Amino acid sequence: GKMPKMMMRSLLAVALVATAQAFAPGAPATLRAVKPAALAATRSPALGRVVAPIARQRAARPLSALNMVVSLPAGVPLKVGVAGATGAVGKEIIGVLEKRGFPVAELKLFGSARSAGTKVQTKFGEITIEDFSVEEARKLDVVFVSVSGDFSLEYCDKMAEGPDGCVVIDNSSAFRMKEGYALCVPEINADSAKKSDKKVISNPNCTTAIGIMALWPLHLKYGLKKVLMSTYQAASGAGQEGMDELFNGAKDVTSGAKKVADNKIFSSPLAFNLIPHIDVFQENLYTKEEMKVTWECQKIMGLPNLPVSCTAVRIPTLRAHAETIVIETEKPINPDEARKLLSTAPGVEVVDSPAEKKYPMPINASTKYGVEVGRIRQNIVFGENGLEFFVCGDQLLRGAALNAVLIAEALTEPIGKAFTPTM
Questions:
Q1: Dihedral of CA 290/295/297/298: which sign?
Q2: How does pLDDT run across 371-400, given as a tens digit for each residue?
Q3: Distance of alpha carbon 362 from alpha carbon 354, whole angstroms
Q4: How many CA atoms lie within 13 A of 146 on its CB side?
Q5: 402-410 vs 186-194: helix axis angle to the nearest 10?
Q6: How far is 295 from 284, CA to CA, in rounded Å?
Q7: pTM for the full predicted model
Q8: Counting runs of H as helices and runs of E as strands, what totals does the chain give?
Q9: In whole angstroms, what is the distance from residue 231 CA to residue 171 CA?
Q10: What residues have CB less than 8 Å from 174, skipping those under 6 apart?
Q11: Which residues are catalytic?
Q12: Which residues of the chain have pLDDT under 50?
């Protein structure tokens, strides 16, 4: 028989209430609606590439977060923190804040228990290193984090959560590929950070950050179809300990104290050697460092299906990464036009005069804010739709500290405004 109208209305009312509760911001985790389980890392048979793993389940975004804007007040001195202040990147962040005249009302420097109590001279006065605490960090407007992935996973969300939490700009890989977290190179996708439903913003991998400065303007005009990259990465990618191991190893070998340098930080001795192995090998025989370049380029540029292949090599230089990049484009690309285009791109410096022996090199790119681009030429494999070039950028600056501070600067500007910082 038919269901009585009164019973039907009652069941409909219960269903509507349950649905409203499921999507309410305060609904318990067991009640909130979730999307169907997403695939973990998968391989595309056509391209033989690995797609970045994503969370298997994600709760429905609360309606209150749909119009959320992550921002910092403009023209107002800010309370700033640096976690990992005594490390290689932490020191550079302090230097960038000083050199760029970032509006600092108060600077807190957080370090390990071992470094707590140490006094540091800065442009902002003498500052005593403090042992890190979430409570102190939450009193600030923005905190730059450069410690480790484990540290970031434990503390970043705790610092940022709630309306009274601070903006956190994280240099680790902890949140880069997580849904809901922005991965930002501000000259390219500053709005991704401003429109994020999380106040934790990720800095990209250093290799990605350097290469993408040249890739993005070329994509806007010609359309990227394929990207092939080989990298020559400095010891600074492994932090101060990596640079120390290279320096001391070279000294031991040149002095005759040892025939082959010691290695603890790197998988093999780096002095007078190179190592085609950075981070752990994946199932597809790329290393994680190489796949980071693929995944991060796709996410930052909003091109999830762009084929990007990278071979990452550690070389015995101290602090600037170099990359050979080959691209195939949708439209024909002329080297002279590309050279002119790149010369006007933000954060890029064209150094390309082979007759005068001028091209990007670590010895010149170290300590520079801009990324050097040169050796620009038609690629003979892809022909009129192919370009080949060489880039070099400071791993500790564009690849880390500078990009982090620029993110903070971009957050003081309105959504939709192109971010073109002076260097």
A1: positive
A2: 999 999 999 999 999 999 999 999 999 999
A3: 16
A4: 33
A5: 50
A6: 14
A7: 0.83
A8: 11, 17
A9: 20
A10: 149, 152, 153, 156, 202
A11: 206, 321
A12: 1-67
